[in-house]
Amino acid sequence: MEALAEIRGVTKVFGNTLAVNNMNLIIPRGKIIGLLGPNGSGKSTLIKMLNGLLTPTAGKIFINGQEPGVATKAHVAYLPERTYLQSGMKVCDAIDFFCDFYEDFDRERAFTMLSNLAIPFTAPLKTLSKGTKEKVQLILVMSRNADLYILDEPIAGVDPAARDYILRTIITNYSGNSSILLSTHLITDIENILDEVILVRNGQILAHMGVDQIREEYGQSVDAYFRRVFAC
Amino acid sequence: MLIKLFKYEWKFFWKVPATINLALIIITILGITSLISPLWTLDYDIIGALMATSLVFYYLAIFAGSIAVSAYIAIRFYKNVYTDEGYLTNTLPVTPRQIILSKLFVGVLWTAITGFVIICSILILIAVGSYSYGDNSIMEIIYELMMAWNDVAELFREIGFRPFSFTFLCIIYSTVSIFFSILMLYSAISLGQMFSRHKVAGAIIWYFVEHMVVQFGSSILMTIMGFFIVNRLDYYDSLSSFFDPILILCILLYLLGGFGLYCITEYMLKKKLNLD
Amino acid sequence: MAWILDADKPIYAQLVEIIQMQIVSGQYKAGDKFPSVRDLAAEASVNPNTMQKALAELERNGLITTQRTSGRTVTEDKEMIQKIRTQLADEYIRNFFRMMQKLGYTAEEILILIKHATEEGNHYGSIG
Fold it and tell me: What would the pLDDT profile of A81-107 be if each residue is shown by its tens digit?
């Protein structure tokens, strides 16, 4: 089967800064992949390019064999680090919105998750706390049957109980054909749910390995390995 | 998808301009009430000053109303496309063209509605005012004109004025100029994104640059046309053959300019998008 | 509750150990139906592929069998469970003796200590 996503010699330049430097990467299907790297390593630039929010300066990106555009956006579920819902919306408005634009959206699943986290359907978003808003967005994203889920810091702002629920949601909701690319710096919390990790530094891929492979080869957790590699 | 975008754009957009228009309507109703009441016939010195103040206030309210609708169109576009909300707008399975057009149509519609409300407000106040205080002259003239429509039509024919084609062209002209003015806002906001910081300030600078270009262009055009018309005055045997080509030329120029501004906006959204 | 896993050992090997323990200790009895990979992964808060790998390992050593219709079940072979139980016990005892010998106790001293401990069993909570 063809790779889910392929990044072929991609470079992105902002003014004088080289954010991503001739990056090559293949994202396989059916994996939960951690995207790790310090701030400014090119993580978010890469994520934005995968979502068609930035155009590469050079190189090409393919998702399901297509360059980022309408066709790929229909199959990529993206959770940015931002509150991207309009504050005038109610929770159920947001669900209608997703249902209307994404054919792969599962309304039932969304309502189940909302009830499990005790989030009222009719609450206006502006009355919800930041953490709750993040949960709503994650529910919207995970309620899609997408091919590629790109989650940017999905567990940074939520409490431990919700974090466990979210991790369980991620584990149970993705199908064998789809992959999850998860960018985070809280590695310890999510290390056990990852298949592999991609370490990024200075706009380049430093390592792309399985979690157990790192543990077997180096006898340490990915977290410890990460700290060693990126030690200042 | 364009229909869906339009539907949601309308849904999230209508409240603010509707409130503005409601305020304009309330001001108009207040004006009508005061005009019907004998207030203005009272013989106090202050009445004259009050009249002047009311007129200034009314003028400002209408001005503020139309500016506010335009400003909201600009803010909505900026917020929904280029700030945090842009992370959703730009990752929907839609093209930049669909995003721009859906917002453009809603913006044009609300500008047209506001313009219509303002024109009606002014006409109604004039009518009520002249009915209450004047010697009914305006109403009578309108009434007589309507009664003597055949004679009027005859007169128009003599001076070569075709009222229907003129009105039709005016409506098209207004519509096209609304599209143009909104695309000016959109393109300026999009060009403002080229700045790495102070993107809003950048948008305002671009807007003034565009505004100056349009002013400069239209004054040059006026001069050329004026020169042309004075030299060829005998060529125009009728009013409409004088007005209509000018209107058509303006419409074409607006269309051309609007297309250019649209292309700039689409290019920026497609290739130069760079959300913070 | 997520399962408690060590940070520096491969995850899948730890999952094999934990599930083996659950079967041997009777939490899952012989012939019991096993939860799906996904549910088990969610329960443990681990990657489903890793859980899959752990279950495959357990299938290889025969503790778990897969039927086409009813999914995964714990083996009916009680003898085998017993055998693995003995194996594990053996392993723990050997480990225990190794540690105690490191501390400088002889085999006789260790036995006395154990006898002593079982007599005041309640100090050791779950013993007995």
Answer: 888 999 889 999 999 999 999 999 999
Report CA A185 to chain centroid distance, whole Å: 13
- The rounded distance, in Å, linking the Cα atoms of A230 and A158 is 26
Q: How far apart are CA B83 and CA C81, in angstroms?
A: 61
CB B162 within 8 A of CB B240: yes
Q: How far is CA B1 from CA A109, B13, B82, B180, B187, in A?
A: 24, 18, 20, 24, 23
pLDDT-based confidence at residue A232 (cuts at 50, 70, 90):
low
- The 10 Å Cβ neighbour count of residue B227 is 10
Contact status of B94 with chain A (Cβ, < 8 Å): yes
Sheet containing A32-36: give its strands across: A76-79, A148-152, A179-183, A32-36, A196-201, A204-210
Chains A and B touch (3+ CB pairs under 8 A): yes
Cα C57 to chain centroid, rounded: 14
pTM: 0.86
Question: Mean pLDDT across chain B, nearest whole number?
Answer: 88
Please give the C-alpha separations between residue A76 and each of A5, A69, A112, B53, in angstroms, as whole numbers. Answer: 11, 10, 22, 59
Residue A219 C-beta-side C-alpha neighbours within 13 Å:
0
Chain A contacts in chain C segment 41-80 (CB below 8 A): 41-42, 44-50
CA distance A83 to B65: 31
